[in-house]
Amino acid sequence: MTPNSFFHVALKADDVDATAAFYEEALDGTVIERGHADDGEGATAVEHVALEVADKRVYVFDRAPYEATGDVESMPNGLLHFGFVVDDVDAAREAIDAVGAGVDWVMGPERFGDLRIAFLADPAGTIVELIEHVS
């Protein structure tokens, strides 16, 4: 399985707005999306700000989508995961499982707005997101 591109990093912060402001002001980031927990449910019931920084996205969450669904215990602040774009999340999952890479599937695949996403923990425990753009 070959990802199409590296898409984003996701961070967890107690103060989403202050952390997003840092990336805006210090790294010339541009806010492209804000989401509020009250507007979502399950994985989307999170406070978040998405920023474009250089040529990638940085997402700042108050809690990870997989925390919101109860798939994992509370995560510490800092780096939550990073994401790769793939053509087909299901096919990517099958290809990864076929390799016998010793991963644990954390969440998904499931719909997240105009995306299908799945999260896995690699053998070292680092969480990786697979992202499929759907309409």
Tell me what the structure shows.
With 135 residues, this protein is of the alpha+beta class. It has helices at 16-26, 65-68, 89-99, and strands at residues 5-12, 30-35, 48-53, 56-61, 78-85, 104-112, 115-121, 127-133. Strands 2-3-4-1-5-8-7-6 form an eight-stranded mixed β-sheet. The chain starts with a strand and ends with a strand.
Which structural traits does this protein have?
135 residues, alpha+beta, 2,3-Dihydroxybiphenyl 1,2-Dioxygenase, domain 1, 8 strands, 19% helix, Catechol 2,3-dioxygenase, dioxygenase activity, dioxygenase, MMCE/EMCE_epimerase
Number of helices: 3
- Count the beta strands: 8
Mean pLDDT: 94
Q: Spatial order of the strands in the main sheet?
A: 2-3-4-1-5-8-7-6
**Helix content range:** 10-25%
Overall number of structural domains? 1
Low-pLDDT segments, ≥5 res: none
List the helices and strands and how they pair.
Elements: E1 5-12, H1 16-26, E2 30-35, E3 48-53, E4 56-61, H2 65-68, E5 78-85, H3 89-99, E6 104-112, E7 115-121, E8 127-133
Parallel strand pairs: 1-4, 5-8
Antiparallel strand pairs: 1-5, 2-3, 3-4, 6-7, 7-8
